[in-house]
Amino acid sequence: MSRFEEPLARVLGTRSKRAGLGKLGLETVGDLLRHYPRRYERWGELTPLAHLPQGEAVTILAQVVSASSRRMRQRRGELLSVVVTDGTDTLDLTFFNAGRLKHVLLPGRSGLFSGTVDLYRGRPQLAHPKMHLLGGEESQDSAVADLDRPIPVYPASGSVDSQALRRSVGVVLDTLGEVPDPIPPEVRSRQGLVGLGRALEGVHRPVTEEDWKEAQRRLRFEEAFVLQAALARRRHAAGSQPATPRRAVTGGLLDLFDDRLPFRLTDGQREVGERIAEDLAGDHPMHRLLQGEVGSGKTIVALRAMLTVVDAGGQAALLAPTEVLAVQHHRTINALLGDLAEAGCLGGDDRGTQVRLVTGSLSASARRQALLDVACGRAGLVVGTHALLQDRVEFCDLGLVVVDEQHRFGVEQRDALRGKGRDVPHLLVMTATPIPRTVAMTVFGDLETSVLTQLPEGRSPIRTHVVPAAEKPSWYERIWHRLREEIDAGHQCYLVCPRIGDDREDPGEGGHREDGDTPDADTPDGDIPDADAGPAERPSAGSPSRSARAIRSVLDTLRLVREHPALAGVGIEALHGRMPAEDRERTMRGLAAGDVQLLVATTVIEVGVDVPNATVMVVMDADRFGVSQLHQLRGRVGRGSAPGLCLLVTEAPSDSPARRRLDAVAGTLDGFALAEVDLEQRREGDVLGAAQSGGRSSLRLLRVLHHRAVIEAARHEAGAVVAEDPELIGHPALGTAIAELLDPEREAYLERG
Ligand code: ADP
Ligand code: MG
């Protein structure tokens, strides 16, 4: 057993219990040592009690003369008044909520106290000073000598005070001895990093500021390095598996398809297509992430890859995050392929193939037939949702899996599907939202990456306006007329609301849940489009209108627009996740056919929905949505040649953070930039997925948005170590660190589900 796994109770005895470390979830030596201080304070110069400058920060060394506590009248708890002396003069210290302190600040006890001097009833006092009490073994002289030392302050932890933590850590460090270092010495020297033992000492017991800085630098690198090594091993393991090469053929289905495409591929689409074709022709499975700006045309890229595989005699599956999207993909692919999708049928082109849709809501017989066609290989292309992951689905020769708008497909689920081929199929993952490079490197670090930034030609940029409904009621009223004009011009419009508004919701539920999942306003069967990479929008407090007014819902808004004179005669439908699947499908079909002119919806349409004729997106209570989510929503319009318009309706006051977020969305069409804005505002855990936010994250010092250079260096070093020693035989400490990172409790992290 490594020193790090040793229970604290064994090292600290009863001190561990007394210090309440268990309450912080600190059970082992490793837990305690990896519980780093949040910041460091300084005592500063000592001030004599005789010369206390009012209103200024001071540090004094003094002894308790007397202490008394009494209940407070206005507030809960006890007020503790302490008189201290430096031998000549005296000073009052005041503590609210005295608690344990009154048993500690006993007459005779000495310590350092620091705070800001104020006058109370004509006498100077320190209210709530920070303090360091001297024990018996610590002399006043040594305390004074220590004044220059940075004082570690640990993350706020209720009943456990920093001083108790410092003492416990001290005992552990004193008995620690040699510790195995997951960063190999040559990497350390190349990167100029101190060893693990010295880093732990420096972070918890620094003598100088430089100590904790170099310690943090090293520990931060370690976090990035271990994570990247884990990802590099995953890449390596996958890359050494055999796969059936699927080589492009000339004059095949892909060529026929390209000849019929009603538009020219963008340069990006062509280049990424070539890259993918190379991967597919290799004898190791492709593992590629395709990132793309919203509307950049990822679907075509995926479909062309799928056709390449069919040309080579295999099958390809496309997984969508929602049924709505799967149905749409199925329809689009059929439309694009035309008679090429009807091989073997009357009037079909026999150089073609067949496309099957497999979703949870197929009738039993339709499902049986579809599964049969998949199993015998008659269907070269299969589109589906999670239902495709079920065990009963057998493929004849699955050569490629495409995961569209990745949010919910974790590594394990991808593996489950890939396990369905004779060999491991090739894998193409497409993200729903542009994500900053370092996040991609961290969260999808086991995949190679391609990026599509260019939009197809002929698109006019989407204009976005914030509509402050309360400040400008006339602007708000104008919306309905604007919709009317657009519809009269032959276009279609969306109106998105943060909630459904049936009685099955919690009142006031907003666009986001705190746990980083999407509004459960949507489908019951887990068929929810995940919002942008796990939102966790904190409902912005401080907006008075919010509590006074209910958040706009689909059902209320539906009533409003159906009764609004400006919209008389318009084909209006609703779409949300709690509608029966067949109703949803009918509405989507009506939308695609143009019969539905105005769609009032929840974020079911957030991701992927592609109706080129749609031109206006109105988002109600837009401040309830995340930045990337709004960018996604906006991406639903302006997909054809007509210009798109996006209106963000809000009642958030003009100087609020919520409004600034909306202004940011209105201010740029660059999804990568917005992704950074979005992530800036989240806790680190949200960036990496819900699994990281609770409990003890493995990333304590590393911030994926801010430590790009660290992540890149760590990725480079880790890649080299793993390439040379894939089993990490010569790097046992690194192996252990990876195993800890991936232990069952934390495995969820890599699933990013
Ligand atoms: P996303 O990358 O957001 O998934 P889609 O793949 O849905 O985007 O493509 C958006 C729209 O652009 C679709 O209607 C698609 O047919 C169209 N499209 C794709 N590529 C091109 C192109 N090269 N030229 C014109 N339109 C294109
Ligand atoms: Mg898409």
- The overall number of domains is 4
Rg computed from alpha carbons, rounded to a whole number of angstroms: 31 Å
Report mean pLDDT, rounded to a whole number: 83
- The count of helical stretches stands at 28
CATH architecture term of the largest domain:
3-Layer(aba) Sandwich
> Which structural class should the secondary elements be placed in?
alpha/beta
Bound molecules: adenosine-5'-diphosphate, magnesium ion
Strand arrangement, largest sheet? 11-12-10-13-14-9-15
As for the CATH topology of the largest domain, it is Rossmann fold
Number of strands: 21
Short description:
The protein has 753 residues and is α/β, with parallel strands linked by helices. It has 28 helices and 21 strands. Adenosine-5'-diphosphate (ADP) is lined by residues 263-266, 269, 292, 294-300, 456, 608, 610, 612, 639.
Structure description:
A hairpin with a 2-residue loop joins β5 (110-120) and β6. With 753 residues, the protein is α/β, with parallel strands linked by helices. The two termini are 32 Å apart. Helix content is 37%, strand content 17%. The protein is globular and about 105 Å long. 46% of the residues are buried. The protein folds into four domains: 1-42 and 163-177, no CATH class; 45-148, OB fold (Dihydrolipoamide Acetyltransferase, E2P) (Beta Barrel), CATH 2.40.50; 253-452, Rossmann fold; 462-668, Rossmann fold (3-Layer(aba) Sandwich), CATH 3.40.50.300. It has 28 helices and 21 strands. The longest helix has 31 residues, at 209-239. A seven-stranded parallel beta sheet has the order 11-12-10-13-14-9-15, sandwiched between helices. The protein has a six-stranded parallel beta sheet with strand order 16-21-20-17-19-18, sandwiched between helices. The structure holds adenosine-5'-diphosphate and magnesium ion. Magnesium ion is lined by residues 298-299, 404-405, 608.
